[in-house]
Amino acid sequence: NAGVTQTPKFQVLKTGQSMTLQCAQDMNHEYMSWYRQDPGMGLRLIHYSVGAGITDQGEVPNGYNVSRSTTEDFPLRLLSAAPSQTSVYFCASAWRDEQFFGPGTRLTVL
Amino acid sequence: KNEVEQSPQNLTAQEGEFITINCSYSVGISALHWLQQHPGGGIVSLFMLSSGKKKHGRLIATINIQEKHSSLHITASHPRDSAVYTCAVREPYNTNAGKSTFGDGTTLTVKP
Fold first, then answer.
1. Fewer CB in 10 Å around end: N or C, chain B?
2. Which residues of B touch A97 (CB under 8 A)?
3. How far is B23 from A53, CA to CA, in rounded Å?
4. B8 in contact with A at a CB cutoff of 8 Å?
């Protein structure tokens, strides 16, 4: 199993650009989530999904959209990037109480 | 007040010292995770606890459900233990869809 994969690993955007961060898992986990990690702060939940076709907002959802058309994929879309969205983004999947993290995407918005 | 509080925020130790990181939480949980992240690295789950104590090599994690408190201990610390250690609590599916809440992390530096 590849586990949780994320692409790209690094991305630089200009303010106002849009892009999609990809996340996929091959463990057939129902629960998937996106977090952002900022210096000096813990991981903060952006959006999560408890199964295909079901998504919900987390703690910091503004400026981000998600969809879950399949169990495997959970892309995160930045609609109009802002410098405040400069962060490291982690995708995770979970089964029962086990949680698995992707390697992260480091995003810089200029 | 954060739902998950960790202490200390930063910790510097000499190689060989015994280290303790504490985590207190205020919500009902189904499990608590201790996570490790080396500088520039990914997030690794060290332990998942719902009761009692677990040991893996030099790492020991304990949880007291009644007191809503967990500790992570590192015995005979080594410079390669230098990392950020984060406590994360997972809420039950029937109350909050299994969401996880994270502490702010403890930055550990072990000096040779």
1. N
2. 30-31, 48, 50, 90
3. 35
4. no
